[in-house]
Amino acid sequence: MKMKTMIETLKKATRELHEQVEQENLARFIMDYSIDEATYKLLLLQNYVAYKTTEEEIARHLPFYEGKKHQELAKDLEQLNVPVSLHSFEGDFRCQTRPQAYGAAYVVEGSALGGMVLARNVTRCEKLSHINSHHFFNGDQNNITAWKKFKEELSLQEFSEEEKEQATQMAKATFRYFRKVFQTGFSVAAVK
Ligand code: HEM
Q1: Which ranges does the record mark as transmembrane (predicted)?
Q2: CB 117 less than 6 A from any atom of ligand 1
Q3: Ligand 1 pocket member 24 (CB < 6 A)
Q4: What residue spans define the domains of the chain?
Q5: In CATH, what number does 6-182 get?
Q6: pLDDT tens column, 136-178
Q7: 49-80 pLDDT tens trace
Q8: Four-point Cα dihedral 184, 75, 123, 55, nearest 10
């Protein structure tokens, strides 16, 4: 029997968590085009907190890693006058080992796939039609290129059974972390 690749293992282990996040998070209102500006702002801020904390932590362990999604989110927030803040989540996300960082990066980079669908839909949301540019939901093909490169990089790694388990557990923990941040109602009051 052929051994499962690391990607296959991670995908299978997180399938249910992905479904939960997909069903619960505010992006579902982009999927049905009903989102309004206040909800969009909260969605952007939740994503900013989740990506900034995870991308910086992953980069501490993986030198090649350039997590830049939080920078695009910061641009969106600035454009809408929402103060950029990590609120209570500063330092809340931690990886201890390289395999753990790979597991977390799988989640953060793989999210680009859903991001492409959301980018297409966001331009069709009537209540956001006054927003000229979406930086995070940009639909740029580079997001997919980065995901493919990451998968290649991951496939070159040799992990022991113990390390595979570490990566898998961290991928699950990363989904749970995103879920927790997505359940938080931050203030999105505009700066005067
Ligand atoms: C409403 C929100 C979301 C939608 C509509 C969505 C949709 C999708 C779609 C269509 C795929 C491609 C599935 C495939 O080709 O097999 C995908 C893959 C993925 N998504 Fe999401 N997604 C959402 C949110 C998220 C979030 C918030 C995360 C992470 C925090 C995430 C992480 C992933 C990962 C890791 C994969 C890659 C699975 C793999 O091929 O190994 N997604 N998503």
Answers
A1: none
A2: yes
A3: no
A4: 6-182
A5: 1.20.910.10
A6: 999 999 999 999 999 999 999 999 999 999 999 999 999 999 9
A7: 999 999 999 999 999 999 999 999 999 999 99
A8: -60
